[in-house]
């Protein structure tokens, strides 16, 4: 399997070890990214807002040298790099940026006027907000302003809440 230097790869880590592995990667001066999201956990006696990894057991690592590859795999909690069909999963820079934008979104924007709902399977472009200019695929229409941002290189999806008036259709290609 080939590693291309300067590209982002997905390091698979032991369950619930994402923050620890990320910290150790940063200590070893290996560029990495751990997308986190806030969620509310409910126990029998209380509710608590916690920060949890967006992708369970995944830490994104930018491999700049063979040393980065070997040292990242030697970190306690790291298992292996994700691969599909004997090729390491390369995450494109624009996909990392899209994940950062989605993670950075805050608050819900409420709709004030009704809009025509998109059809399942349509590809739309987002015309406002932090995801402006990005394409998304409509995978579910349930009147809750939710879209799916597909990260093809790692075969994962991110659910984002985006007002329908932020979407517009792409021109038909013949």
Describe this structure in words.
A hairpin with a 2-residue loop joins strand 7 and strand 8. The chain has three helices and 14 strands. It is of the alpha+beta class.
State the CATH architecture of the largest domain: 2-Layer Sandwich
Could you tell me the radius of gyration in angstroms? 18 Å
Rounded mean pLDDT is 82
Q: What is the CATH superfamily label of the largest domain?
A: NusG, N-terminal domain
How far apart are the termini? 38 Å
Topology:
Elements: E1 7-13, H1 18-27, E2 32-33, E3 36-42, E4 47-53, E5 58-63, H2 66-74, E6 78-81, E7 83-84, E8 87-88, E9 90-91, H3 93-104, E10 123-126, E11 135-137, E12 146-151, E13 156-161, E14 167-169
Antiparallel strand pairs: 1-5, 1-6, 1-9, 2-5, 3-4, 7-8, 10-11, 10-14, 12-13
Top keywords for this entry?
174 residues; alpha+beta; Alpha-Beta Plaits; SH3 type barrels; five-stranded antiparallel beta sheet; three-stranded antiparallel beta sheet; 3 helices; 14 strands; 35% strand; globular
Q: Outline of this structure?
A:
18% of the residues lie in helices and 35% in strands. It has 174 residues and is α+β, with helices and mostly antiparallel strands.
